[in-house]
Amino acid sequence: MSKNDSFVEKISQQLDESQLKSKDFSDFCKHYAALSAEAEQKANVRNQNDEGSRLQDEIAQLYIDKGKNDQMLIDANTRNLRMEEKMEDFSHFLKQMDENYKKKCAKYAQLEVEFKRMKSDHSDNKDERLAFNTNVALLRDQIQKLEDERIQLMNKIRQLNEQKNEIQNAETQLEERRASLMAKDRANSQSIVRKDQEMTKLAAPEKEIKSDLFLADTIPTIKMFNIKIDDGEVNDVKWISQDTFATGGSDRCVKLWKTTDDEPLKLNSLTGSSASITQLDFDPQRRNLLASSNDKNLLLYNMDLLRLTATLSGHSDSVTCTKFYSTNGAISGSADRILKIWDLASQRCTRSFYPISKILDLETRFATSPAIFASAHHDKNVRIWDGRSSEPAQSVVLGGRVTSLFMSKTGQEMLCSTRDDTLSLIDIRTFGIVHNYSFENYHTSSDYSRCVISPGGDYVAAGGSNGAVVIWNKMTARIEKVLQSESESTVLSIAWNPTGQGLLSAFRQKNVACYK
Amino acid sequence: MDYEVCRKVWDSQIAAQITIQNRDEILPFYTMLPRFSYFSVVLQDILQFFTSRDNELNLDGEKIWLESKGVPLKMYIPIGVIFDLNNEVEGDTWHIVIKTSNAPSGYRTINRETMEQIYLQNLKEADFLKRKAETIQNMQIDEHRMLWDSICNNHFDDFWGINKKLMDTSDKMFDSIPLRVYERNRPAFKQTLLNPRNDSGELVTVGHAICQLLAISEILPTSTLISHGIRIPAETPLIYAAKNLTYPDNFVHICVLKND
Amino acid sequence: MSEVKKVQVHLQAVANAPILKHKTFNVDSNRDIAWFTLTIRKIMNLPADQNLFFYISQTFAPSPDHTFGVLRDCYAVKDCVNLQYSTTHAWG
Fold first, then answer.
1. Measured between beta carbons, which residues in chain B are less than 8 angstroms from residue C56?
2. Looking at the 3D structure of chain A, how many domains does it have?
3. pLDDT tier at A472 (50, 70, 90 boundaries)?
4. Which of A66, A113, A118, C34 is buried most, with the most CB atoms less than 10 Å from its CB?
5. C30 in a domain, yes or no?
6. How far apart are CA B253 and CA B246, in angstroms?
């Protein structure tokens, strides 16, 4: 307390006094405790003196007891000795155990150290694993991101493709309109020109008759000749006129030949392709030749000048087949599953079709409409298209991959060759199968094996994998003739002479044979 | 805290002579009893003293009871309070008899463990009066235990190390002062809610507080206020008493003696 | 004199203490907790080995010497002394 109050003083003083008083008594207490302890001790000593004599008696008794005890001691000693021996054995055993124990301890320490090391290794591995896991998670995220981007890009590509198609189709329509306008013009001008031509016709003699002179279908029986083409397989052979024909194959050029009485004469080689020629076609006037090539291009040759007039490119895989189509047009099919219609005047693709399967052959020359064409597909379908619509008008399913289509001269029946070793004749008005042609020794040679109907429409023919050319009667489907070749090389293509007399067959191994 | 006063209060003792009922042949035991302590605490040592002197003496700590001058001594009241209430002359030796006969009805022999419980309850009541028992309930059980152990082992510093928390008024003044007033020949103490300051903000003195408690106008000059064996000046502020003159149970125990 | 007065006491059971029929008692102000404990034990018929504790404000157990006059003066709420009772130690 800051102010030394009187009450504090009073209290403090009284406490001191009482303490002083109690101090005397507390001293007394201590002394008293000491005295009482001493008294206790003394009392104990007095008790002991009284008992002295009694103790002597007890001693005598004790001596007797001692004697007994001595004897017991001796016994005990001997027992002791025995026990000691046992003890020694035991201690020896103990020592051994001790050694064992020490060894175990050492081993244990070693194991401990090893365990520690493994523990640290384990923790290291754990850390690494964790780091790795985080890395994996990171990479997974990146993959996810890339995947998302990819999907976006794919979608964009698809959209762009659709746009492209729309634009192309629009272009085609414009082109058609332009063409119709031009046609009108041409019609106007033609009426004038025709008059001029009639005038000139009267004036000048006929230059050359390009139309085929049909005599009659005869079944060929004799081999006329067998020529060797320089290089590899001959994919297609076509008659140009009654005595000239063209071949195309892996020699990368179209060769023109003229038949003579003995060996045929090579007229010309049309080059321009950088890969095998797959199919040939002529326009009805035999002025132009189309060749499809494995170099993804379509080649157009002028037969008057014997020169390459155009290379039509646009396919992304080998062009497997091509045909002239309507006026001044061509159509091509490719392994890239796209059909393209080309305007030969402008040398541009006017329209694309997207069937879902690889195209193996094409046929135009439909009697019903010049705009109609057919395509043979790897998925066993023959699809019939109208050039003005993008979806197939009709499809006919056959028993195997359709390797070839051939339209009869009348334009009303189409022969199809399929890989199930049969030929089928389709009525193009009903698209029903009229006849099937097969033979035990006939096996379809390849995916591009060609078949033909004779110019007179009496026979159908196809070349088999054993080198034989089989001729069936079209109406009865009976075998008429099997033309066996000695080479037994696979027949890839055949062509019937427009006169009806003479059949060319092209082999896989550098050969072209002619039968009459 | 007034260290000097607290220390002296803690150290004050009572001289006592202790005998056993009907065993005059056994020499009495003389000792100094600490005023702040309880019979339940000191009895163990006393009994041990007797049994060590006489092995045949069989004293059951749970059955014996205490008496002085024909008055049973309550074990759960601090020793100093019992003495002040029952003895006229301070400084006299206190004659205490350990009785082995049946205890009077209502008498409770209390062992050390039960005493610890009672002590804690008193402590709580004091803190409840001072500040709704907030301080004591915030203390840890260990601290309660240490308070009791320092009483049993007479460790002043340990006790005050913890007790000062209960006495702290630096944040908030006590609501009311735990004061119990005893009168001779009356069985019960008096206790009420006493503010440390009166309505006009002055510190209330012990004298005023007792007048209020006993419902009297003034303390007669013949009366004395006794605590810890000393006369407490009536002008002592109540708050000073509450902080420095309390027993370990945090109560100020004052006996009002009328000297006729 | 104030000592003749009765003090109203209200009891609340705590934990698993037996429930009393009458919870409110009027007790002489000079009666103490020791007496009250004995009385309630008799009312509840508690066996001798079972404890009975009273608590005030759910905080502390009053000393056996506490008279109800003092309890009323110090701890009554609206002139009523509320006591919690339990057969086990309830609050510390």
1. 125, 128
2. 2
3. very high
4. C34
5. yes
6. 7
What number of residues does chain B have?
A: 260
Tens of pLDDT, residues A365-390? 888 888 889 999 999 999 998 887 87
The verdict on a CB contact (< 8 Å) between B193 and C73 is yes
Tell me if C62 sits within 8 A of C29, measured CB to CB: no
Which domain-ending residue is among A157, A180, A207? A207
In a domain, A55, yes or no: no
Whose CA is closest to B182, among B213, B219, B207?
A: B213
Q: Give per-residue pLDDT as tens, A86-138.
A: 999 999 999 999 999 999 999 999 999 999 999 999 999 999 999 999 999 99
Which pLDDT value is given to residue A128? 94
* A251/A347 same-domain check: yes
> Measuring CA to CA, which residue among A312, A239, A331 is closest to residue A273?
A312
Amino acid present at B74: K
> What rounded mean pLDDT belongs to chain B?
86
Residue C92 lies in a domain: no
Confidence (pLDDT) at A146: 95
Torsion sign over Cα B47, B50, B54, B56: negative
Query: Which of A373, A374, A363, A389 is closest to A453 using CA atoms?
Result: A363
* Contact call for residues B224 and B192 (beta carbons, < 8 A): no
Task: Give mean pLDDT, residues A273-280.
Answer: 89
- The number of folded domains in chain C is 1
Q: What residues of chain C lie within 8 A of the CB of B194, using their CB?
A: none
Is A275 exposed, middle or buried, given 0-12, 13-18 or 19+ CB atoms closer than 10 A? middle
Contacts of B198 (CB under 8 A, 6+ apart): B204, B208
A295 lies in the same domain as A260: yes
pLDDT over 90 percentage in chain A: 29
Residue A35 lies in a domain: no
Domain B3-99, CATH number (from 3.40.50.300, 3.10.20.620, 3.40.120.10, 3.30.70.60): 3.10.20.620
Residue A334 — φ and ψ, nearest 5°? -140, 165
A15 at the B interface (CB within 8 A)?
Answer: yes
Q: Which residues in chain C are closer than 8 Å to B125, comparing Cβ atoms?
A: 56, 60, 62-63
Same domain? A342 vs A484: yes
Question: How many angstroms separate the CA atoms of B91 and A429, rounded?
Answer: 148
Q: Do chains A and C touch (3 or more CB pairs under 8 A)?
A: no
SS3 of B60-85: the string is CCCCCEEEECCEECCCCCCHHHHHHH
In a shared domain, residues A89 and A135: yes
Let me know whether A345 and A391 are in one domain.
yes
pLDDT of residue A406: 92
Tell me the whole-structure pTM to 2 decimals.
0.47
Q: Of B74, B110, B125, B175, which to mutate for an interface test with C (greatest number of C Cβ within 10 Å)?
A: B125
